[in-house]
Amino acid sequence: MGWNDKQASALAKLTVVTRPDEIPCDDWLDLVAEYVDLLQSGQEIPTRLQPVQDHVEVCPECAEELAALLSPFEIEG
Amino acid sequence: MASPSATGSAARTNEQWVADLQGPDSQSEPAVADLHALIRRFLAAQLLKRGPVDEAQLDDLTQTAVVRVLSKLPTFRGASRFTTWAYSVAVRSAFSEIRRTEWRNVSLTDFSLPNSPAAAVADDATDAETFAQRRAVLRVLHRIISTELSDRQRQGILAELEGMPLAALEEKMQTSRNALYKLLHDARLKLRRGLESSGVNMEEVTAAFGL
Fold this sequence. Notes:
The complex is a heterodimer. Chain A is mainly α.
């Protein structure tokens, strides 16, 4: 038995999206709030925050967290 | 509807948040209560998107997240709104706990490198040429994983292919998130450079796998 189609595609994608200059998850977490505020206020994202966007191409967990931070939710009371 | 950055009835400036949370009990207790309420509402909304929300679990995740935010408070640089920063810390705390719990009963020994890289036959939707390209890519990747990655790199990559989140993997490998990320990043760089040195470029991989 070899890798199934899903695993094979995941492995290929992991390889393709890899960049030499990625930031790790904890560094990403230090920057993401500023990135979210700028994005939500329609301001330009400075070059130094570009790694925040690049990181979520590689890391599905941080991508899920970014989606949560960008999603609207009901304020009660 | 409001963005997660909205503060509702507990509006404070960044400076007020930090001063209140670090102040004497008479000042910090209402601020902590406001922070707790904001994070609970935020996490409730996020958890609802994943499925039914268990109130006891929500309470536990909220409490842990608030403690985490307070412990990280000295690192808040004021580059964003305080609430956005607090939500980012809270969602990392809560989602990581959920991910660890979901994978608690899975062992890394459950994952091993397959003997051969690819399935023997193509699915109906894959033409012969594309299938051959995929097999060629997978053969190289299989060889690199087998011979060029360290045991921990191999273990981490195989777990990732099974969908295990980093939050669970860091616990099982008894390492930190950043150290794990570096381990896997180094492994992925080996895979990419190994493919390139075998004459396969990334455009070909993208096309072959429809990425």
